[in-house]
Amino acid sequence: MSHVIEMIGIRKEFPGIVANDDITLQVEEGEIHAILGENGAGKSTLMSILFGLYHADRGVIKVRGKEVHINSPNDAFDLGIGMVHQHFQLVHNFTVAENIILGKEGGFVYDIKSASKKIKEISDRYGLSIDPDMIIEEITVGMQQRVEILKMLYRDADILIFDEPTAVLTPQEIDELMQIMRNLAKEGKSIILITHKLDEIKAVAERCTIIRRGKLIDVVDVKSTSAEKMAALMVGRPVNFKVDKKEAHPTGVVLDIRNLNVMNNKNVLGVKDFSLSIEGGEIVGIAGVDGNGQSELVEAISGLRKVESGSIFFKGKDITHSSIEDRNEMGLGHIPEDRQKRGLILSAPLSTNFVIKEFYKEPYSKNGILNSEAIEEYGQRIIDKFDVRSGEGIHSLAGKLSGGNQQKAIIGREIEADPELLIAVQPTRGLDVGAIEFIHNEIVKERDRGKAVLLVSFELDEIFNLSDRIAVMNAGRLIDIVNTKDTDEHAVGLMMAGIKKEERSEV
Amino acid sequence: MKSKVINKPLEARKASPLLVSLSAVFLGIIAGAILIALIGKNPIAGFDRILFGALSNVRRIGNTLGMSTQLILIGLSVAFAFKTGLFNIGASGQMLMGGITGSILAFYLPLGMPRPIYLLIIIVASALVGALWGFISGFLKAKFNVHEVVSTIMLNWTAYWLVYDWIQRFIVDPTIVVKSKPIETVHTLRADWLTDLTKFSTLNYGFFLAIIACIVIWFILDKTNLGFRLKAVGSNRFCAEYAGIKVNRSIMISMAVAGALAGLAGLTYYCGYSNIMEMGKMPNEGFDGIAVALLGNCSPVGVFFSAVFFGILKMGRGSLAATGIPTEIADTIIATIIYFTATNVILANFWNGIFKRNFEKKEEAISLALESEGRSVDIQSLSKDERKALIKKGMPMLKEKKAEEKEAK
Predict the structure, then answer these.
(1) Threshold 0.90, pTM exceeds
(2) From the centroid of its chain, how far is CA B159?
């Protein structure tokens, strides 16, 4: 069997952390090879080395059996290695074709026509269904990703690296991507898939290299290895996919939303006549496809967005027009949807981020003067309790943490503040099974302590796993509220598409 | 107050902002030296002249500090705005407004009033008017999303023409109609004891005002809730908003504080360093302050030293002419330093590379020494003294090894 890529004994250190410790990766020609590991395990570092973004401290890279030195992405391109990044690198007001030939225009006058033709050919060959004349900002995220793939193929890459490709996709788009990857492999392309989602690996990959904390753990054959086994190898202990939780004991209404109307960014109603109440000691999950008013609803409750009409009562008090500060003071905790935009100050140390809502309260501050000792102690407590891993502890800048640890930091902050109502939006997006298990348990613990939890998630698994009741949203409206134990994914899926129970029975 | 450091692993040093700034200064001076040499003059003599002009006697030192005073305050104003996420390019206008406030009060307050009270009034008044001028920009940004760069530039010219008009209207010198009347010395920030001490230099109470301002701003930024809020808004306003911090209020406060500092600079400049205001002159100091803030890494201490450094160059340039070197050389040095400060990433990378190589060499020496002793321990667990001893022992071995490798090649 010939190895198209061989990385042997790779070591890479960053200040305070060994990201890759003697890792070996062998990819065969025409295979889909998955790299599985927790957040911060060193998958992305390894791929960045292969792609020439980092330089390995030690180790050898061989491409098609020949030892190579990859010093920049351009070297990687020349070797036929292409990478589809998590964050797309596209110019939004350019067309697909313009984006693809960007940097490869050739002479002074570029020939967009023949480029378009070639793009169309490639697109048809691999079933990408991309029209070269479409403008990037007008196409869906899934299509943008396919443009990235096209870009690689246009440049004759035959080794494709996918870095967490499904993080931004809807379930349907994920299925399409999986099919595309199979097509690519069938045509002889070799694919490296970096992910921490086991079902994706199960769906497409042939072999899987498992990395934990910078070390190579095992290379397994995907077909003959169970998901549980792979998860255990990745995390280092058996993982529980189902959350153990007891019967809920509701303790009275904490949040009461009545006939709420909220505008969205396009200045039309994003939330329409929405009513819902949540009691202490229960988790209410909001199910719905992304963009059906969940963000607007959460922003209205947390005070980030103006309410058009209707009212919100929190612990019996009308907070419809209260300031965010007042809501926080009353005990509203919020794990925001976008952790890097809203959740953290990336350029500030963790200690600052942990007290971002409470810095003005005792003991962190007295008479307007900060008490850095108390702030640091508090930060250390959160780090210990929620196992937030970073190079320099509380002094680490939030931006230097891996995504999973950033999320743990936010969740630690919100839970440690002991809220009466915890709003958790996509609390486990982009996280690995180990972290998901941890976060799910923390959320259930909050419920068991009598707190109200509002969970917003686009992943039905998560909704079903955690919620005591499920509220389904479609086009800004509440379709129905059901008890989790009285329903199933199929029924909720139909409601997510806007079909109510009564309507269904009529059909 | 000692913070707990938690098992921070050993690693190569990182270039500090101080080292980067000093490197920029060094490169700026080298560039100046090359230019002087290119026009056929002796660079050493040139720098000697600059230092002579700025520091050779108490009067010159006094003048240099007098010049530095407004640079400190303006630098602080720009730095404070930077730290809170705003670009205050309107320090010139805020300075003019503070200056005209002090100048008009100097003529309209009775000469006989107790000096401490008088000084307090003009200090507070010019700071307030400067704050108002800054606040307008903050208000426009908070309420109407007008970018502060646009509004501060606009307000620079508004201040320029207001001052033009007010000098004419209230305090014009009837004999030379383009200037204000000179202010009586007791109504400036000049102090007899300072004047005597520095043999009639421009040094005045403003210098102490600037030092106090540095301390106060450092305290606000690093130690207070207010500073926490302002910095949070400056680093990520979305996160600050989410955390319940009132973003719009913070922006207005930031600009007002920046304006107050620039207003004070105007007071020290027009009613201390000098005692007249000219009509139709936009003070350069407003823009120099940006350079001061950048070189000082926007920290109050850094601003103080970089302002004094620029003060030396500005005062020393006059003496350059005597040697036949154009005084523009001093400006060129300043410009070069700003250039290198702006490209600080390159300088930081340069130093980090050196530190890293050095660190790796030491690690290698340690492992060689350990090997020779037949020990195998984790390098991270060694104590400082042990490391030192091992490095000393390992270095010759490393050299030998390197030499052997060379020969082998």
Answers:
(1) no
(2) 24
